[in-house]
Amino acid sequence: MMAVTERIGEAEHARTAELLAMPLAELMAQAAALRDEGHGRVQSWSRKIFIPLTQLCRNLCHYCTFSQPPRPGENAYMTREEVLAVARAGKAAGCTEALFTLGDKPELRFAAAREELARRGHDSTLSYLAEMAALVRDETGLLPHINAGVMTREEMAGLRRVSVSQGLMLESVSDRLCRKGGAHYRSPDKEPAARLETIRLAGELAIPFTTGILIGIGETREERIEALEAIRDLQDGYGHIQEVIVQNFRAKERTVMANAPEPDMDDLLWTIAVARLILGPEMNIQAPPNLSAADFSRLMAAGINDWGGVSPVTPDHVNPEAPWPAVERLRAATEGEGRMLVARLPVYPAYAQDNDRWQDQAMVRHVLAHADAMGFAREDDWSPGIALEPRVTRPSALPVDPAIGAIVDRAMAGALLAEAEIETLFTARESDLEHVCASADALRMQEMGDTISYVVNRNINYTNICAYKCSFCAFSKGDKAEALRGKPYDLDLEEVVRRTREAWERGGTEVCLQGGIHPHYTGDTYLNLARAVKAAVPEMHIHAFSPLEVWQGAATLGLPVEDFLRRLKAVGLDTLPGTAAEILDDEVRAIICPDKLDTAQWLEVIETAHRVGFTTTATIMFGHVDTPRHWARHLIRIRDLQRRTGGFTEFVPLPFVHMEAPMGVRGQSRHGPTFREVRLMHAVVRLALHPHIRSIQTSWVKLGPEGVKACLEGGANDLGGTLMNESISRAAGTQHGQEMPPAAMEALIRSIDRTPRQRSTAYGGVSEDIHARGMTAAELTPMVLTPPRKRRREADTNQERFEYAE
């Protein structure tokens, strides 16, 4: 064992010697290449507010101006009202992070701190901090990140319940600096062993953690390397260190070190590059831009991938002499170095995507509310179902990423994209996003021309009673009383027929029949529905029954799926909607619809339907707990099935509407996809499914007029149905109404200089007479929502009998 330890020690000494001897230019080149391997062109930052809860501190660091003694007539701690005022200003400015910074346990040194805490009902600074962090979280939704110094396990665990991440700068592992004359003399909380233990405890508690080193306070370069290696070893053991800061000492007036020399830019660049080489490609390494003034853009060449927190509201209270760069200046400098500025949360993406491990349950809903599918910050407060204002694309100075350009070229040529390639397309932002969307639109023009199609149809949701408990669905109700968001209903066949006839009179060519999985429905129920509609209006196209309804109907009759589909075909069913797909990946389905069909079963029903002679649509419902990897898998499964059968007529992206969905209400999902993700989905679908599925539909119900315009200019070619009655998205909280009449459809299409075309379900044409009926349709008559019925089966006839519930 000793020999092994000696060899490890020798190797580390050799590596240290190598780093110390390597020319700066070579160090930086290696570091930048390693950074690009782990982070590509993304340069992240956090839009934050700075809340200095108290500037009292028991330590006497020789370089610090943040620490202040008690002042007569002034509070030792920010009041509740002061904290909330800063937080509300931050929320108004679009911030997501509330950074709480404070001195270490001032009550151990100052009677004024103890007395004020007692007046506030607390016995410690950390107790008051926990109350204020919870206040900010609950009142504003901002995500607390806490820098509270050296703590015990119990103290850190308590703060984990009210914060998404914590931090403690290691600063140095040099015990020399704690001796008389050193920068940390008379600062008990700066002892390296105590700080390393706090960082280790954070690992045990699964706290996403920030640490780093402070250079220029008397340490040697060898000691910097030792500190970085200590951080690396803790990360190797626990995986919790989400970022490492390399911070340069700045001399400040009225401090012991006011005349100490500051590290120059080359020294800072050297340290950043060494940090990257020691910590590896995946680590997030940050250097504060405000501490390097005009030269801050040079820091990127040494291997950083993050700018840290930058506030549009509050100053850097630790370095008040160094103002933050304005965001547009930060963006311009970042793009000037060929990198892309992307806002993040105080908890980094890899940790935001694994909330079960890294967050207390009380914090999960708040992280999900701010996160996009990759774990970065949402660009704004928009969600599907909310009216979207017209948007102007901000020009980017960046060229298109060659890797994304190459994947797009392969897709345009009809290549079968691999999962990793499709996933990469879903990461596109700014210039890359515009390239993906423009390419998809060019492919749309090549495949479908300038025509945008739509169908005049009516949705008839025959029951909202459902035995399944899909956590994304706000439409389904229980079959008892008025539980679950409103009255349950179970339509009479007469009402279904009445709505069908009215749809035909109003120019409709399709009825789309879908509903909840009523516990009393059998396959005969679905057969009777189709039979009744076809008998009433033989010309009406019946587009009905999701794979789940088909599976359930077949099972209740004891039939193979294929036999049941043939019975449906015989009574008049024309095509099937490819709904209930959600995400075709069982990792996601286990969370959002665990009792529903699994991926293989859904594909089996659809493939069987194609074999029987039905065509179907295909859908994806995205923006909840899924990620780009799941989207890529879904598209590949649809593409591969289409290559076998050719039975899909169109693909329909359905953005998740979160407002009234159970998992949205419970805070178990994101707030739907971002608008960038919506645009990307339509564009990537066009590219990834080319040339196998030619028609890509966009949902006006989910996106509204402005949203669908953007998608029609980014790869989509179809506006779907006029619907007449839309219930499912409306139940989830969308604001976009129940019907978009043909005249409104055509006006929207012409507004983007495209040609409207009313189509049939199968993408054929319709007669002038039918088109005219739709353009001059009367108002819809009121719907009748038949209340639930008791059902019993007559033993002698095996026929269902109905009795209305009282």
Helix and strand topology:
Elements: H1 2-21, H2 24-39, E1 42-54, H3 80-92, E2 97-102, H4 111-119, H5 125-140, E3 143-147, H6 153-160, E4 165-167, H7 192-204, E5 209-215, H8 221-238, E6 241-248, H9 265-279, E7 285-286, E8 306-310, H10 327-336, E9 340-344, H11 349-352, H12 355-358, H13 361-370, H14 402-412, H15 419-425, H16 430-448, E10 451-455, E11 457-461, H17 493-505, E12 510-514, H18 523-536, E13 541-544, H19 547-557, H20 561-570, H21 586-592, H22 599-612, E14 616-622, H23 628-645, E15 648-655, H24 662-665, H25 675-689, H26 700-712, E16 718-721, H27 728-732, H28 742-751, E17 755-758, H29 768-775, E18 789-793, E19 800-804
Parallel strand pairs: 1-2, 1-8, 1-9, 2-3, 3-4, 4-5, 5-6, 6-7, 10-16, 10-17, 11-12, 12-13, 14-15
Antiparallel strand pairs: 18-19
Helix pairs in contact: 2-9, 3-5, 7-8, 8-9, 14-16, 15-23, 16-25, 17-18, 18-19, 19-20, 19-22, 20-22, 22-23
Structural class: alpha/beta
**What separation lies between the terminal Cα atoms?**
81 Å
Unreliable stretches (pLDDT < 50, length at least 5) are 479-484, 792-806
Question: Helical residue percent?
Answer: 40-55%
Estimated radius of gyration: 31 Å
Q: What amount of the residues lies in strands?
A: 5-15%
* Whole-number mean pLDDT: 93
Could you describe the largest sheet, including whether it forms a barrel? Answer: 9 strands, parallel
Approximate shape: elongated
In total, the number of strands is: 19
Count of runs of 4 or more consecutive helical residues:
29
